[in-house]
Amino acid sequence: MKSFGIRNFSAKSPPEKKGLLLGAYTGDKDGEIVFTKAAQGIDNECQGKLAQHIEVAGPGLKQGKCRVFYKLHQNHDIIAIVGLGKQNLTYNEMEDVDEKREAVRIAACNGCRTLQDVGVTHIYMENLGEPQCAAEGANLGLWLYQENRSPENQVFIPQVLPFEGPSEGWKKGEILAEAQNLARRLQDTPANLMTPTIFAENAAAILDEVGVVVVVHDKAWAEKKKMGSFLSVAAGSEEPPLFLEITYNGGKPSDKPIALVGKGITFDTGGISLKPAGSMADMRGDMGGAACIVGALTAIARLQLPVNIVALIPLTENMPSGKATKPGDVVTAMNGKTICVDNTDAEGRLVLADALLYAATFNPVLTVDLATLTGAIIVCLGSAASGVFTNSTPMWKVLHKAGTVTGDRVWRLPIYKDYTNLMTYYRSVDINNIGKDKVAGSCKAAAFLMEFAPKENWIHMDIAGVLGPSDYHPYLHKGMMGRPTRTLVEFVERLPGSEGFPS
């Protein structure tokens, strides 16, 4: 699990075969194409044969589509041309995304997959006008989880190299893609091979390589801290719960840290409130928040971002047994608040409650939690965006901008007092973990967390909808998606000096 790269070296390598990937824009006239600078240079070198063959192959070159040509250039036996769409693409308010950057990611992915299909082992790719996005699309698009297939059945993943040289943007794109691929790898690993203990071991080994310190706290430590809410979820499992405390010091010693909190349920049966069997296997990815934070921290450290971060990850399984928490049980969180657990499948908020309270002891400048928290967010947003709840509009604006740049979008939802009232209107306890009425599940979950979160500069990201598995995202193979790792990194990078970010 230590490797950051996307290539699987245990797969049998085919004979070396090189290919060149170039780009072309859609022109103003029907069927017209406009080569990128790199593509035009290659076309000049082969006396216009590239343009001629494209014209013979059919009019135009649609955005994201790819064509492959052979023996046109003396130094490049295989040349692929991929469509980038119009040259003037920019931010689309309705789609809430930078369409130019997304077009490059999709083109890079499709072009690389096309060359992979024809047996190319080394892809030399131009930057397509956006070197960071080109590197992201290529490296995200080729990676797939195949850890448990025998070598002879594994798909060989080509190596992608920058045709115009490794610019800073290209290197950053590789780092970001590798961070997301790491999150995907953690999420997609079967639960018997990714227990709390194994996750902790992997996180410690991976983050140690980039100079990030990981301290692993055990059950006795959590008991001493009186984390009754977190420990109530762990009660039904034979696997011991763990609590990761991760420190990255990239800023000044006097700078207050950013606190990142990630839900780390390595498998979620629902507990006594058992989930339906049909999609339960997908719950190996219920530690998506934890996985994204580990992935993001590798990128943050490799990019040497000038911030201090403390990341907190409560790790446990949620299992049914004779020792498991029962519906109707009352547990006590670290701050003394009592919680009636009416549904043991609403466990994510229980582990996050104590983690948020512990985060406050570090006096953070900002607290962000990520969790695959509610099925309701899937009903609301699908996989188009992560749901965001926050008490800081300035911080929301920074996060929103980050999502438009990365293409991994976020969308703000409300936390009205109405939702808090539905969670706290009980005479016998302070709060209920599912609350009154079968409405607004994601909003009520956020209202629950708000009872344990800071009164300002707090962001909750419900990422259940962007977990996966999905097979219709352009540059991700079917499987867990590792979202929103790149958005989290982009957000952290934009924070210093941003409006509303406390010094």
TrEMBL record:
Keyword Hydrolase: yes
One GO term describing the cellular component: cytoplasm
GO biological process: proteolysis
Residues in Cytosol aminopeptidase domain copies: 343-350
Top EC group: hydrolase
Enzyme Commission number, as recorded: 3.4.11.1, 3.4.11.5, 3.4.13.23
Listed PROSITE patterns: CYTOSOL_AP
CDD domains, alphabetized: Peptidase_M17 (cd00433)
Assigned keywords, A-Z: Aminopeptidase, Hydrolase, Protease
Alphabetized GO MF terms: manganese ion binding; metalloaminopeptidase activity
Catalytic activity, as annotated: an S-substituted L-cysteinylglycine + H2O = an S-substituted L-cysteine + glycine; L-cysteinylglycine + H2O = L-cysteine + glycine; Release of N-terminal proline from a peptide; Release of an N-terminal amino acid, Xaa-|-Yaa-, in which Xaa is preferably Leu, but may be other amino acids including Pro although not Arg or Lys, and Yaa may be Pro. Amino acid amides and methyl esters are also readily hydrolyzed, but rates on arylamides are exceedingly low
Protein role: Cytosolic metallopeptidase that catalyzes the removal of unsubstituted N-terminal hydrophobic amino acids from various peptides. The presence of Zn(2+) ions is essential for the peptidase activity, and the association with other cofactors can modulate the substrate spectificity of the enzyme. For instance, in the presence of Mn(2+), it displays a specific Cys-Gly hydrolyzing activity of Cys-Gly-S-conjugates. Involved in the metabolism of glutathione and in the degradation of glutathione S-conjugates, which may play a role in the control of the cell redox status.
Similarity comment text for this entry: Belongs to the peptidase M17 family.
Protein name (record): Cytosol aminopeptidase
Organism whose genome encodes this protein: Nilaparvata lugens (Brown planthopper)
